[in-house]
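Fig. S4 source data, part A: sequence.
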Amino acid sequence: MKAIIVVLTAVALAVAFVPVAAAGDPAIICKSDSTDKCSGRKYCCYPSGMSQSDGDKYCKKLGCKRGGTSSCPTAANVSSCGTRDKK
């Protein structure tokens, strides 16, 4: 019984800390009609220290037309503008 409690406690702690470890910089999802530096990009990433409102303004200046919010993807095949500018 003690082994089950230890395992369940370990699983609960792991689940509690996974979102913190997996969280990245915030991002705005750009619509397909975005322009300028965000033209053809799916995400506009901004620094995690910015508020969402400031992030919206930052991405709007780069030409991103907001379609929603997300965390900034780290996959190599995802295009983004902003702090992680890549095609």
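Fig. S4 source data, part B ends here. The first strand starts at residue 26 and ends at 30.
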